[in-house]
Write the structure tokens for this entry.
Amino acid sequence: MKVQKGLFTTFAIMVSLYAVKAQDGFSGIIAAGEKDANTLMRAYIAPAMEGLVYAANGGWATTAKTHKKLGFDVTLAVNAAMVPSGKEVFRISGLQFENDISGMPDVTPTVAGDTQPAEVSIRLRDSGETATFTMPEGIGDDIPLHAMPAPVIQVGMGLIKNTDLMVRFVPKVGWNDVRANQFGMGIKHDLIQYFGALEKLPLHVSLLAAFSSMKVDYDIEEGEAYDGTGQRAEFKLGTYTIQGLASLDFPFISVFGSLGYSGGTSRLNVLGTYEVDYQVAGVFSRTQTFTDPIGLKYGVGSMRAGIGARLNLAFFKLFAEYAMQEYNMITAGIAFSFR
């Protein structure tokens, strides 16, 4: 359990890093008004929300071979979904707003970028009130390969008819103001058993289907940017994948490949109340309160093709995989496998 919590807490640390870098921006963006704040936040946070779907979907299998009945394995790994370079920045003028919003400069980083964030000016069309804020920084300099990481903590067990059940489960763990938990389940079924003499070859072919869910809560430090109450961010993730697997399994090495589809949804809600001060004609200010101002949902999916290798040292396994999809991904880790 300590190993599980330790590895999964790395994800909580990354979310905490996003939050610390973006905290002023989360609140500052709210000054754009509910609809425009969601437009800005959607563009800024998209690489994390999309990339984490793909990252959480990786690492389900390192061979097409299934366990013998009641055989099992324990896998510890990290998936890193690399953000396409075109999604490291976005142009403020390229978004559709209800109010008059401009940035200086016009190009600002997404959460995966590393350029200087824009200073944003807002003028509410219905009242003439104005406000300014700085977009949040990206964390591109802080993460290798500009990749969205997700840990894999998985137990697999052989059932009947050459079928493996795989489970991912981590109870709620925390890091500073971040709390996270995860659950996932997958099934891998051997197909080569239906082809008679082929069972004697080192070739294995199977079908895999899996899903997972994750929830992360972050307590925003109240009053850091705007006064208010109950300020927090809530992240939810749901993923699914179906893949055909093939592997050549030899005593000391396995080579495996996969072809299938990976997709899912992610949600971000910024909750609580936020008191924003606007300037009126540059003479006096007026405070407006926003409640639960941001609610975003992303849905992504793409074809997936992966290739990898696994070193087999008795029950100890060391593996790596590269998957080509919308967010290309690298997976690396270790496993302990018996029977």
